[in-house]
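Here is a tokenized protein:
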Amino acid sequence: MIRETLIHNRIIIFILSGLAYYFAGMIGLELAIPPGFASAVWPASGVALALAILFSPAPVALGTFAASFLLNLQLTSAIYNQLTLSALIIPFFIGSGAALQLLVGWGLFKYFMGRTTASDVGNTIIRFSLVVVPLSCLVSASVGVVTLQLNAVISHDVFVFTWLNWWLGDSIGILLFTPMIIVVFSKEGKFKFIRRMQVVIPTVLIFTSTCMLFFWSIEIRQEKMNAEVEDEAKRYTQELKIKLQLSKSKVQSYQAFFQGSDYISFKEFQQYSKTLLDRDSHLYAVGWVEIIQHSNRDDVVKSLRMQGFPDFEFKTPKDKRMEVLKTKNKYYPLLYIYPYELNKPALGLDLSELPGRLELLKKIEVTGKGRVTKPITLVQERENDKSFVIYLPIWKKYPKDEEIKGFASGVFRASELFGNAINEAEKNNIGISIYDITDITQPDMLIERPVNSHGYIREKIKYIDFQGRRYQITFTPSINFKANDKDWVSWIILICGFIIAALIQAFILMMSGAIEHTNQVVKIRTKQLTQAIDKAESANKAKSMFLANMNHES
């Protein structure tokens, strides 16, 4: 029966200590200075040590491990969405470090301060502050930071800062919360009610004021960083707009080239392209698409064969290969292309046979304005390497009228066109993703550079309208954005506020303990004096009675 009761009590202590550590840890996470991993003040360490001293270290250590594991699993796995091996290893070792620190702290407390839980004498508080706290807090900081570094969560550059921040956060958490919890929850008779209130009220007031000032400082800091990201987003958006306009201007040069001549041969097209594009890596391919009526099909085929392409035919894709196109009323064949060798299979391809391409070309014929395809994957490219094609109309002018005779096309790879801007943004710890949202129900990814989101700084979204398509550009600051620009103001507010609270708490404990001790001494001395007076009066009374009896007998 006694054994069952003991087990039951330990289970209750395990559950309660785990819950207490978890909720205190959630408060500590709110006090973390972004984008740091370690909180500048960790109340959970103080709560855990106090519960171990008041109750039993073993179940409290187990509860601490479980709660710390869950807290850090929540961080490393993006709130349980990515359960990888690393996401389990990191919280396991951090939780183990927290539990081991608790046991070391409890052992040091018992060794240097005895089994009493009262902190009544000045040198007792000094031993607690200068020996128990700093030595025990070495454990969790060392285990946690080494674990983060080995798993590439933090770099060598911030190792010392993170370790110091972790050690200082645990130390302040123990200095501030362990004595207060011991005073509040100790057995009746250990501390009087007035003394408990003298400790709790100033500590809570200073803690609350410091937190309010800290959150105000963090909010100002975040507003500043959000403004910086907004400025960067505007700058990169403008740069991307310029890139798109430059891409259009390249195709416009072909538009002018074809409209300035009644006839251009394949050789002339190649020579012009070589002069214009050999040093331009942005334009992957350029082509000439002519609108051909069926009555002119044979003449066009004959003309291309005479220019050096004996196997030329109008073609359509089928089962990953090309076959001769059947008879139609109107064709949209790709007659010229540069560079030819890289795109040889596409020569003669009827674009109207490609999904969605006829609709696009028809829009150009109706509106007379250029259009851009949705993101496409070229045959020779990887699936995530997207491209797009710009089509501009080529007009055939008559004395009193004009009509579209074909299209100049330019193929652009997103990685080549936007690569420099995106790489520069990535170096500045900003990830850029560009999506074609012309069809809002089916957005198409054009290019994307994912980053580990900062979490505290909002991503920015901009839009670009270009040749009938709408692009959404999302700018996501990474966790390393302004990582070297430490928020020392918030850090100093937090550290100084809680150190002041801990010092005031220690002073109150020392003074109230000294006053209580003096009152006890006065009571003892008063009692001793009263007893001495009573004895003296009794002796005088006995002496008087003795003398009276002697006189009577005389």
